[in-house]
Amino acid sequence: MFRHSQIKIGHLYLALFLLYLLLPLGVMGGASLNDSRFPTVYPWMGLTDKWFIALWNDSRMWGALRNSVVVAIGVVLLAVPTGTAAAFVISSMSGTARTILYGALIAPVLAPGAVIGISTLLFWAKLSVPPGLHLSVLGQVSYIASLVMLLVLARLRSLDASLEEAAIDLGASHAQVLRYIVFPHLAPALTASAAVAFFQSMENFNITLFTRGTSSSDTLTVYVFSMVRGGVTPSINALALIIVSVTLLVTTTFALLRQSSKRP
Amino acid sequence: MLIILPNIALIESSFRPYLPLNEIDGPRDSYTLANYQRFLSTPVGFDIFGMSIDVPIHLRIFITTVLYSIFVTAIILIIGYPAAYYMTKTISPSNMAIFFIVLTVPMWVSEILRSFAWFTILSFKGPLNALLIEIGVINSEVRWIRGYYGIIIGLVYTYMLFMVFPLYSSMQSLDKNQIEAAQDLGASWWRTHWRVIVPHCKPGIVSGCVMVFMLSAGSLLVPSLLGSPNSLWFTQTIQQLMLEALDWNTGAAYSLLFLSLCTFVVVAMMWAFKVKLSDITN
Amino acid sequence: MRVSSHSRNLVPQAISNSADPEKPSEGSVELEHVSCRFGSFRAIEDLSLTIRAGEFFSILGPSGCGKTTILRMISGFIDPSAGTIRIGGEDVRGKRANQRPTSLIFQNLALFPLMRVWENVAFGLEMRRVPRSIRRKRAEELLTLVDLVGAEDKMVSQLSGGQRQRVAIARALAVEPSVMLLDEPLSALDLKLRQHMRAELRSIQKRTGVTFIYITHDQSEALAMSDRVAVMNKGRMLQVAPPHEIYHNPSSGFVAKFVGETNVIEGKLVRIADGFGTVESPLGQHRARVSHNVQGESVALYVRPEHVDVSRQRQGDNAIEARLQDVSFEGSFALVKAVTAHGHVFLVATDNNDLQRLPSNTENVYLHFDEQQAFLLQSDREQCIT
């Protein structure tokens, strides 16, 4: 049990911690509504929507957004099956072989994105494949698939082996066991990993930067990056505010849905 | 058995993209050596712990990147540890769900926006300067994005949660009675942490530190956005080689160096703290 | 427990401060009008209690009755909302758990899994900055005391349940507490080991002279070990008395029913004379002792199963006509279930040797009990004890 004074210190610390985490995002978003030439919330010059309009009219942004979504969908389609398959293989192994394979499979999660990007670029260049968004997809898949594998593996571990045995005992074939026992059990993990894969791909910068090729194939992240470097206008803040709001909305709905489904 | 064979092929193909490094460095040996020599060329003055020695410029960048990444990891650990501790101890489980949603918002918002947020705050005409001038702390605008300050601030913010989550989950598994038993036996606050809580959380601490170090050292966005011309990160050097100088071979050599460093850090940490790989990624 | 002469010699020096005759009250614990609330929930209401130095004191009650709260208030993990707690005559308000002369043994023991056995035992000394060599020596002495010689360098995970128990006791004793607080530490053990550890705890307590405050919901544990037992329910102390007193002369229906098996006859009080009362119920009129105040005429008569006899003929006044239903063999004795014509169930404990001579379940029998061994209490039906 905690004493009241300690609880107070704890809450104070956590409040400051949250403030530290959230205030920068608030400032960034807020700056987009300020009628100032620079992205700032202070001094406040009055409310404006002109930066949103400027953003709306920016065709490069729309192109980048389209590219991002295309890449992300490609990544989801490739990474989820690959990662799931890898998880199956890992879970069916044991001993040193498992440790080695496990290490090899999760290495991309820990390896720096820039290195993955470069190696992807070099490998395909050797095979005379030009850089472009398709390479971005492949590069991203190599580490996102590992993330998927970790998520699925965690879920697989909770699957009661006796369930599988019971099903086989009742005459189910291996395919039927997969279809009726394993996949329904994995479904939440698969959904979650698809979502994670999508978001990870959307926000990926390091790999994309090296593999995307020409500047016409910007993704949203790369676009924001080049805008910030090239001279900032608050329309970037407007974009940031939109992204923050969308993520907030999606995560909250997701969390609420999960909460309500947990309650019987 | 039915699934194993086709999947080995799948896995193999998913991992082929970064095997080629060896292929490139392998058959063309003469190239490789030249590339590594370049790493050690162009000596410049380098101040370290008050001593000035001549060190090749790229090596210097490499070392500063590593040192600053360690520094960033330490700051994150210092800020994140109490946060994780108080999260476990003072937030009731019913409030935890909401707290978690709020906490994870910066995590879901992409890395670029997290650094851009600080770019906005720290910019020359930004809110921080305006506010500080207004309340009279400073007289004229301060260039915050100078040297490595901006990078450190940005990295600490960007990767904070990668430390807090592993810490939190390892602390959560600690039996509350352990803490009380220690206190009951006369342990002070500090000693309870040192002898009971920290040893228990060791896997969480190590995995948090490894993650943060890797992400910081490997970050390209944060140093590019919040750095200045005189604060180069090693990833930026690689990027310049690859995309501006188009010297892919040197770039590859540097990447390999960098990758070995990362591997070395992970292995060293795991060995030093007797933590298994599976503990880190979980 | 095997007590070697060596370990017996060790005791006075091991627990030097509590054996000091000049401070006889060092291990006493007094609670004065203590209350404890968590939000709107009243865990403890205006509770006063004095525990004497060197006493083995048990607090017995159903789970959720507030007994753990009392322990945690004494050890300093919870502050009482009102009232005063004194340990050794000293008000401990504001003193934290790590400043109080108490040692707590947790229900799950809370041994430190990452430390060796001796490091666990010496943890309290380490916190007091005792040099390592002395710590090691003290740990060895204490492990001898609890009969665990040779386990010093093992990890906690290598020990059996009973051995862990001993480590926990040694660890708590190492800081030379004047009061030991035990929170159902035996509940995780199997029956055999539990009975063995009871005797061992008792013997350690006698040898060290430290005040033991023992929390349990197991009445047999409380009765077997304690000098005095406090029975609690819903945040209140119902009775504080030596075990035989609690068992033979409970102050309320709840105590009577919670401590041991008992038969109840609810009825109307007809008269009281010379310390005996007569109850009228559908089963007839019966007499029993009245040792606690009885108000009103709604009363209940309690009689323990071992005080009831079965015979074919009616003998004397305190008799009930019934039919035997079934017998459950309990080892050293047998419990016989008897049912009256009204459906009232009585339990009778009989010697195994008498089992052969029991009447069959087709004939009517008479249940008898001595008015000295039965007792009358106010009926607690309205209080609705759950």
How does this model look, in words?
The complex is a heterotrimer of chains A (264), B (282) and C (386). Chain A has 264 residues and is an all-alpha fold. Chain A contains eleven helices and no strands. Chain A is globular. Chain B has a two-stranded antiparallel sheet with strand order 1-2. Chain B has one domain: MetI-like fold, CATH 1.10.3720. Helix content of chain B is 74%, strand content 4%. Chain C is of the alpha+beta class. Chain C folds into two domains: 244 residues, Rossmann fold, CATH 3.40.50.300; 116 residues, OB fold (Dihydrolipoamide Acetyltransferase, E2P) (Beta Barrel). In chain C, the strands form four sheets. In chain C, strands 6-7-8-3-9-10 form a six-stranded mixed beta sheet, with helices on both faces. The interface between A and C is small, with 2 and 5 residues.
How does the SSE layout of this entry go?
The complex is a heterotrimer of chains A (264), B (282) and C (386).
Chain A: H1 4-31, H2 50-56, H3 59-91, H4 95-110, H5 113-126, H6 133-157, H7 161-169, H8 174-203, H9 206-211, H10 220-230, H11 234-262
Helix pairs in contact in A: 1-11, 2-11, 3-6, 3-8, 3-10, 4-6, 5-6, 6-8, 7-8
Chain B: H1 4-15, H2 20-25, H3 29-39, E1 43-48, E2 51-56, H4 57-90, H5 93-108, H6 111-122, H7 127-134, H8 149-172, H9 176-184, H10 189-218, H11 221-226, H12 234-244, H13 248-273, H14 277-281
Antiparallel strand pairs in B: 1-2
Chain C: H1 5-14, E1 29-38, E2 41-51, E3 56-60, H2 67-75, E4 82-87, E5 90-91, E6 102-105, H3 117-121, H4 123-127, H5 132-145, H6 161-174, E7 179-183, H7 191-208, E8 211-216, H8 219-225, E9 228-233, E10 236-241, H9 243-248, H10 253-258, E11 263-273, E12 276-281, E13 284-289, E14 298-303, E15 308-311, E16 319-329, E17 333-339, E18 345-351, E19 364-369, E20 375-378
